[in-house]
Amino acid sequence: MLEIKTKSFQELTTQELYDLLQLRSEVFVVEQDCVYQDIDGKDQKALHILGYKNDKLVAYTRIFKPGDYFENASIGRVVVLQKERHYKYGNTIMHASIKAIETYYNETTIKISAQTYLKQFYNNLDFIEIGEAYLEDGIPHIAMLRST
Predict the structure, then answer these.
(1) Which domain holds residue 95?
(2) What predicted TM-score, i.e. pTM, was given to this entire model?
(3) CATH number for the domain including 78?
(4) Cα 18 vs. chain centroid, distance in angstroms?
(5) What is the 3-state secondary structure (H, E, C) of 103-114?
(6) What pLDDT digit, counting tens, does each position of 109-139 carry?
(7) What is the Cα–Cα distance from 125 to 128, expressed in whole angstroms?
(8) For the chain, how big is the Rg over CA atoms in Å?
(9) In this structure, are strands 139-146 and 128-136 parallel, antiparallel, or unpaired?
(10) What is the domain count for the chain?
(11) What is the DSSP pairing of strand 110-115 with strand 73-80?
């Protein structure tokens, strides 16, 4: 069971910020062997959805209101610690992120830039592909939209 916290950048403690940057780096840079600029100047505008198991950050996303990243509300930097993925925490953190967008932004249309190998995962959360696949930081991605 994950304990979910939702915080603005200003509400994050130094330890929480360190933990989320460490988790993102562990998965997106080290595990996926992708050199890219993770600290992109957008964290300050985002709400951060933090998923804790036994006081350890194991899942995370950041969400944006319409216009702050895409024209629609959006979810990005979706990450689950590799050894925790079999617990389906990806679903848990995504459901929490969708609910947070509805709660904080009063929005139901959400756009994501998904790694193409995760297309089915996002399809199961009611996201559908829009447009053609593209490379982002050398990794195949596809834009996806969820609208209820």
Answers:
(1) 3-106
(2) 0.96
(3) 3.40.630.30
(4) 17
(5) HHHCCCCEEEEE
(6) 999 999 999 999 999 999 999 999 999 988 9
(7) 9
(8) 14
(9) antiparallel
(10) 1
(11) parallel
